[in-house]
Structure formats: structure tokens, C-alpha cells
Amino acid sequence: MTLRLSTAGIHQQGLSALLRQQSNVARAQLELTTQQKLINAADDPSGMANAKRLEHALSTLEQQDKDSALVEHRLRSQEQALTDVGTQLDRARQLTVQAGNGALSDADRASIAGELRQIREAIVAIGNRDDGTGNRLFAGSRDGVSPFVVDANGGVSYIGDDGRNQVEVAPGLRIRDTDPGSDLFLRVRTGDGLSRATAGTGNTGSGVLGSATVTDTAAWAGRSLSVHFTAPDTFELRDSAGAVVASGPYVAGSTISGGGIQMTISGTPATGDSFTIGKAPTQDVFGTLETLANALDAPAITASEKAARQNAINRALGDVTAAQDHFLSARADTGTRLAALDDATDGRESYGVSLETMLSTLRDVDPTEAASRLALQSTALEAAQRTLIKVQQMSIFQLL
After folding, report:
1. Does 78 reside within a domain?
2. pLDDT digit string (tens) for 168-203?
3. Do 267 and 340 share a domain, yes or no?
């Protein structure tokens, strides 16, 4: 059998080999230049798809890192704001204790009332703080509005909402942004946080409510219980339906017990006077301070007026103390979220390193290997070029 190779065929084969080697050299040069081996999807469709997924995951981590930084800034701003409110309430509590001094003059009490209103204004300003980007810390999900508005009569209203933004700061982890002002400044527990006692607004005697506590929560069961004076020296402890829970003689300064509660009342109550204990309601911190300031400004000449003022001071002292505990609890919760953000940062960094390693394995070129391959392919190209030249010089006419 005879194999015949035409001159044209030999030339075509040599040219094809030369072009393949040129393509290999160009590819190796491109990989060295870009430092990537996944340049076109056709090179490795599966590898390119995996690389794109990894790039998307890294892009998501980058966005989560930015969102986490913003949330951290806002939460630290909230923490500082709550600290500042606590400082204001510390001063308010000192003033409340001072106001209970019976030796103070009306001018002294008026001065205390004025400072309490200044504290109230300071807390309103804290409630309207922004985060440095034009958004308020405590407006809920309403951006661009000052949540607390003071009307012409001095009343404070809230125009934010109860929204809580949940921000994704790591894969599968969301952290609450700052708290709405309605929760922080308006829904503040009063009394001791569990119960709260008040003197009847229509009392005409000089009875002053001292302590009032729940001693047996099961027996109390959250009921409203009232001490009614059937005479200046006798009382009945009644529930909201009017049923008598306990009764007996009254001695100033003694403790009245029954129904899972106990009260200490001093002074001389009048017939028909009452003192009530029930579940501690919520009250805005602004109202607590304004009510106390108004009580200090009110004239107190008669024994009953002085007793009413002292009852207002005692009630405010409990409410301010409860407000302090409320804001301390909010600070602790804020600190918990900040700690979670720190953990999320560590998790993102670790996950990001893992993704970068996987992506590098798929996409990046080993410079040493690529340079060695380029040198080999360049040598092969040179050999192909020389071979083609030799083949082109071959002709039967050289034998004649």
C-alpha cells in the first residue's frame, strides 16, 4: 500500500500545527497577564458557573459588611443616647428626693419644678437625635421625621411608628436596628414595675401613702385593691367589685396587709379617703416629669393639699426609679445586639476567607506553572515554525 501526501496537504498540516501552537502561546500569555484561567465560559462551563456563584456570595458579604457597620454605628449612638437619658433621670431622681423635704419654700419647689422641665426638654431632644446621616434614631421605620413633637401646651406627641428594621449582617443572621421611641420613651413601666399604688384624687384628709408592695403574687393575682377609710381610724381593704378582703383599725404608720399586698399609710385620712394598688401601668417619661413639676408648682396650704403634694412626690419617685430601670434594661439589650454584631463580623471574615480560597482555586492561575507552560509552548511554536519552513523548501526540483 502506498501513502501519498500532496505538497498542498503537507503545507496545510504544517500551517494548522503552527496556528495551534500560536493559539496555545497566546492563551498562556493571556492567563499570565490576567492571572485568571477562567476567561471564557466555554473554557470550563461548570467551573465558570461555580465561580459566578462564589463571586455573588462574596458580593453579598461585602454588602452585609457595610450594613453591619451602619447598624453598629446606629446602635452605638442609641447606647450613648440611653446613657444620656439615664444621666438626666439620675438628676431627676435627686430632685424628686429633694422635693420631698418639708422644709423647702414654695420658691425652692418652683426652682425644682423648673429644672425638672428642663430635664424633660433635654430628654425630648435626645429622643429626636439623628444618626449623622439625616435619619432619626428613634422614629421606628419612618425616616426623615423628628419623632417627638412638643405642642403649644407643652404636650409631647410621637409621630414615628413602632417599626423595627431587621438588617441582615451575616448569612442567615438578622439584627434589630435601633428601637422605636414609642417603646423607649412612651411605654415605661411605673411603680415598682409590677404594681403601683396611688392616693385617691378626691382625698380630703392628710393621709400619705408610704410603701406599697405585693407580698404574694398568687394571692394578689393582679387585682386592683383599695384601702377605704370608713372612719378616720378604721379601714376596709376592698377589691374592684367592692368585696371586703380585710378590715380593721387604722394606726398611723402601721402596715395594712391582705390579699397578697401590704401598704403603709401615715397621717390622718378622712372618712371616704382611699388608696389603691394595682398592676403597674405604662406611662411616658415626659408625663412623669411634667406631672411632678405641676404638683410642685401647685399651691399647698391646707393639710390635705400638702398630703396630696407629698403623695405626688412619692408616686413620682417610684415612677422615675422605674424609668431608670427601664432605660438600663434597654441599654443592656442594645449591648447584647452590639456583641452579636461583633460575632457576625468574625463569622463574615472567616466565611469570606473560605469563599476567596475556593474562588482562587477555580479561577486564579499558578504563575510558576503558567510561565513554565508558556516557555514550553513558545519552544513548540518555534519548532513548528522551523518545521514549516523546512517543509516549504522541500521540492522534487531540488533533485534534478
Report:
1. yes
2. 898 888 999 999 999 999 999 999 989 999 999 999
3. no
Residue 244 Cα distances to 225, 232, 280, angstroms: 10, 18, 22
Last residue of a domain, one of 222, 248, 279: 279
**What's the confidence (pLDDT) of residue 56?**
79
What are phi and psi for residue 139, nearest 5 degrees? -95, 10
Q: What is the pLDDT of residue 304?
A: 94
Q: Which pLDDT does position 186 carry in this prediction?
A: 95
143 shares a domain with 55: yes
pTM: 0.79
Q: Do residues 284 and 188 lie in contact, with contact meaning Cβ atoms separated by under 8 Å?
A: yes
* Contact yes or no for 177/74 (Cβ under 8 A): yes
Cell numbers found for residue 85:
437619658
DSSP states along 289-347: HHHHHHHHHS---SHHHHHHHHHHHHHHHHHHHHHHHHHHHHHHHHHHHHHHHHHHHHH
146 and 264 share a domain?
Answer: no
Q: Taking 80 as the threshold, does the pLDDT of residue 5 lie above it?
A: no
Radius of gyration over alpha carbons of the chain, in Å? 41
- Containing structural domain, residue 338: 48-193+281-364
79 alpha-carbon distance from chain centroid: 9
Identify the CATH number of the domain in which residue 186 sits: 1.20.1330.10
Per-residue pLDDT, 320: 96
Position 223 in a domain = yes
Q: Count the alpha carbons within 13 Å of 221 in the hemisphere toward its beta carbon.
A: 4
Question: Residue 29: is its pLDDT beyond 80?
Answer: no
Q: Are residues 223 and 170 in the same domain?
A: no
3-class state of residue 359 by DSSP: helix
Bridge partners, residue 235, by sequence = 229, 248
